[in-house]
Write a structure and sequence with these properties.
- The complex is a heterodimer of chains A (389) and B (222).
- Chain A has one domain: Luciferase-like domain (TIM Barrel), CATH 3.20.20.
- Chain A is built from twelve helices and twelve strands.
- In chain A, the strands form two sheets. In chain A, strands 1, 2, 3, 4, 5, 8, 9, 10, 11 and 12 form a ten-stranded parallel sheet that branches. Chain A has a two-stranded antiparallel ribbon with strand order 6-7.
- Chain A is globular and about 70 Å long.
- The model of chain A has no long low-confidence stretch (mean pLDDT 94).
- Chain B is an alpha/beta fold and 222 residues long.
- Chain B has a single domain, classed as 3-Layer(aba) Sandwich (Rossmann fold).
- In chain B, strands 1, 2, 3, 4, 5, 6 and 7 form a seven-stranded mixed sheet that branches.
- Chain B has nine helices and seven strands; from the N terminus they run βαβααββαβαββαααα.
- The chains are: A alpha/beta (389), B alpha/beta (222).
Chain lengths: 389, 222
């Protein structure tokens, strides 16, 4: 079971101090938050992707490669990478590059985003968002698995004899999660490829996710990737922790009330009842998080939203200390005790290499000398099987 | 005797007692009485929007459905017919009423018969029901009955109001008796647009043979 944090990358005025951090300050802060995530014993740090203020994370792979260089164990990931408005060819290249630099400590989560104007900014049509996401991933999947791709689709220029470089580290593509809150087609795609399925779990009552995750598990099994219990499920969550419950509630309320998306709406008490938000003592956060398993079954990754709504860096770092020291160790123990032995762990680079090669040496792609074109059909790599013997 | 018809009454009246609620109750009572004369019966559930006001605004801005709103959705989903009653403000139905219907799933009310009723401070608002509220229910593919019931102050001491109430009531009852909504839903449900989890959370069928599902499973876009 992996635990981590995910950030939306919002730059929000601190409603208590009135201070709005600069982009420079917030970018420095997120690096410290990511490093802290590793220091306190968590496994994953994931960043969102946005292309408008008040967010800073327009270039996730640049940020994540810096974070990977400054950590040693942490898996860097996304929440989410826009599979709609990004060119899948660029995604294949950028995340393969990040995979090499991080020595395999990367996976990514694909989503459609929730900012409508992003589509026209990148020349796409929001009405085609779903088929665009599906087609783009179909291409991305092939670009990481086939050295030479001929491809023709509806939404992107066709490819003839294209090779995405660098080839994935050890010949094993980064693991992919598909994020969705109510779209069966996305769950179907995750199941078809044996990829992970992530429900952000933040805004909606859990019944919405339960149906979709159940569908994903069944289809995962249908496509022969394992039993429904072995499907790879990730969940979001949101917490604010203080040693005493009433302190947590008092401290977090001004941030809740002004938070982007749900601020100025429901009361914090109602929101806690209706969503996975927990504000309280470590034990209360533990108890609430344990209910996720009761609803969704054993799962592989739990990410918490800890740094949004203008919470100052000092508070966020303190929250991570509490999460890492008092909450996650207990969750690891309790969830491990409850876990069905049939359930798989979330794939890592090491486990994927082992699954692909067993004890054999993994592939190291070595290109042939430049032959002046890349369109002749056979692989440009030395280990190509030519068919001529 | 057949199973009683389930009648949902939605009132956007705000005072207590409210003439908007009174109008709705009188309609419900008449539908019940008429059903009784015809060997039928009606059960009535009232959705008083005043009590849902904060949950409705929360749902409008955050997609979060509170427990009272969820209960109202369940009542509407199970209803055989609706009576919808609103005050008229600023030449339009109460924003509380339109907000409520705006947060509902598009397919929650398909083919269900609806009486629209309104109270207003002046007869100059007389067309608000026919020009504004019917279009809302047309969008939701619900079936407004031919007679809408508009009341200005002078109508409350005019016996012809009672006759219009009876007319609307029998129209609603006949539509419920015909089983139109059930038949449309049984025979033609898939010809309307749905989303996964729509119709108040009851629409959970998934068509695995759609173009998009084929694309999801590695196929090509249509």
């Amino acid at each position: 079971m992996q635990f981590g944090v995910f950030s939306v990358s919002d730059i929000t005025r601190d409603p208590v101090s009135g201070y709005t951090p600069s982009e420079a300050e917030r970018i420095d802060a997120i690096v410290r938050i990511a490093k802290k995530t590793e220091e306190v014993g968590l496994d994953v740090f994931a960043i969102g992707e946005h292309h408008n203020p008040p967010f800073f994370s327009s270039s996730p792979t640049t940020l994540l490669s810096y974070i990977a260089a400054n950590t040693s164990r942490l898996i860097v990931s996304t929440a989410t990478t826009l599979i709609t408005t990004n060119d899948p060819v660029r995604l294949a290249e950028e995340y393969a590059m990040l995979q090499h630099l991080s020595k395999g400590r990367v996976d990514l989560m694909l989503g459609r985003g929730n900012t409508a104007p992003v589509y026209p900014w990148f020349g796409q049509d929001i009405r085609e968002g779903l088929p665009l996401a599906l087609e783009n991933y179909n291409l991305l999947h092939r670009l990481w698995r086939e050295d030479v791709v001929d491809w023709e689709g509806k939404y992107r220029t066709a490819l003839q004899g294209f090779t995405s470089t660098p080839r994935p580290l050890d010949g094993v593509p980064p693991f992919v999660w598909h994020g969705s809150i109510r779209t069966p087609e996305i769950a179907e795609q995750a199941a078809f490829y044996g990829n992970g399925f992530f429900a952000n779990n933040i805004f909606w009552p859990k019944e919405h996710y339960m149906r979709l995750i159940d569908f994903y598990r069944k289809r995962f099994a249908h496509y022969g990737h394992g039993t429904p219990k072995q499907a790879i499920v990730g969940l979001g969550g949101q917490a604010y922790i203080a040693p005493k419950s009433q302190d947590a509630i008092r401290e977090f309320r001004p941030y809740f009330n002004e938070a982007p998306v749900y601020g100025h709406g429901p009361s914090m008490e109602d929101f806690m009842k209706m969503t996975p938000l927990s504000v309280g003592s470590p034990q209360e956060v533990i108890d609430k998080t344990l209910t996720f398993r009761e609803s969704f079954g054993d799962y592989q990754r739990q990410l918490f939203l800890m740094d949004h709504a203008g919470l100052p860096l000092k508070t966020v770092l303190n929250q991570l200390d509490l999460l890492g020291e008092l909450v996650v160790p207990v969750l690891r123990k309790e969830l491990a005790a409850l876990r069905d032995p049939e359930v798989s762990d979330a794939p890592t680079h090491a486990s994927l290499v082992k699954a692909a090669y067993g004890e054999a040496e993994p592939r190291q792609a070595r290109p042939n000398a430049n032959r002046g074109d890349n369109l002749a059909g056979s692989s440009p790599y030395q280990d190509a099987i030519t068919g001529e013997g | 005797m057949d199973k009683p018809f389930k009648l949902a009454v939605v009132s956007a009246g705000t005072s207590d007692p409210s003439s908007t609620r009174l109008l709705a109750d009188r309609l419900a009572q008449r539908v019940g009485a008429l059903a009784g004369q015809r060997d039928g019966s009606v059960t009535v559930e009232v959705i008083d929007l005043r009590q849902l006001a904060t949950e409705i605004t929360t749902a409008l801005i955050s997609q979060l459905t509170g427990p009272k709103l969820q209960q109202a959705v369940t009542v509407l989903g199970e209803a055989d017919g609706l009576i919808v009653s609103t005050p008229v403000y600023k030449a339009g139905p109460s924003g509380l009423l339109t907000s409520f219907f705006q947060v509902l799933d598009n397919d929650l009310l398909i083919a269900k018969p609806v009486i629209v009723a309104a109270t207003a401070g002046t007869a100059r608002h007389a067309l608000v029901l026919d020009e504004q509220l019917r279009s809302l229910f047309a969008y939701m593919r619900a079936l407004t009955v031919p007679t809408s019931v508009f009341t200005a102050p002078e109508d409350w001491n005019d016996p012809s109001l009672g006759r219009r109430l009876d007319r609307a009531a029998i129209e609603l009852l006949l539509l419920m008796e015909s089983g139109f909504a059930t038949k449309v839903r049984d025979e033609s449900w898939q010809s309307y647009q749905h989303e996964f989890g729509s119709a108040g959370g009851t629409e959970v069928s998934i068509d695995l043979n759609s173009d998009l599902m084929r694309l999801a499973a590695g196929g090509s876009a249509a």
